[in-house]
């Protein structure tokens, strides 16, 4: 192949690569923008529904926090996964700790 032909092929490859990446950025950016425009925040969702009990929401948030704490504790533990503390174990320990703190 001649030098001119190789340059044309490489130029074409670079052009199509840039166009493909640009199109991908537009598609992903559009999806992100649509998601941000349509998905409500937690506070907006509570206002819209209105029938959710705030105590129930606080309980669900507390349980989610306990699950995350259990995952973090299990990841730092050297114990096998079947011997690692469960969410219930952590919940009981937190309840006992709060009882000791109040007493």
From TrEMBL:
UniProt membrane topology term: Single-pass membrane protein
Spans through the membrane: 12-35
Region forming the signal peptide: none
Subcellular location: Membrane; Mitochondrion inner membrane
InterPro entries registered for this protein in UniProt: Cbp4 (IPR012420)
Main location class: membrane
Domain of life of the source: Eukaryota
Keywords per UniProt: Chaperone, Membrane, Mitochondrion, Mitochondrion inner membrane, Transmembrane, Transmembrane helix
Biological role: Essential for the assembly of ubiquinol-cytochrome c reductase. It has a direct effect on the correct occurrence of the Rieske protein, core 4, core 5 and apocytochrome b.
Family statement: Belongs to the CBP4 family.
Protein's name according to its UniProt entry: Uncharacterized protein
């Amino acid at each position: 192949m001649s030098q001119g032909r190789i340059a044309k092929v490489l130029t074409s490859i670079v052009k199509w690569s840039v166009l493909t990446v640009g199109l991908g950025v537009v598609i992903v950016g559009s999806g992100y923008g649509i998601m941000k425009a349509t998905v409500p925040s937690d506070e907006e969702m509570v206002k819209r529904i209105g029938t959710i009990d705030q105590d129930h929401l606080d309980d669900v948030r507390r349980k989610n926090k306990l699950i995350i704490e259990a995952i973090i504790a299990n990841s730092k533990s050297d114990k096998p996964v079947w011997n690692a503390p469960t969410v219930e174990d952590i919940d009981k320990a937190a309840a006992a700790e709060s009882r000791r703190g109040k007493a």
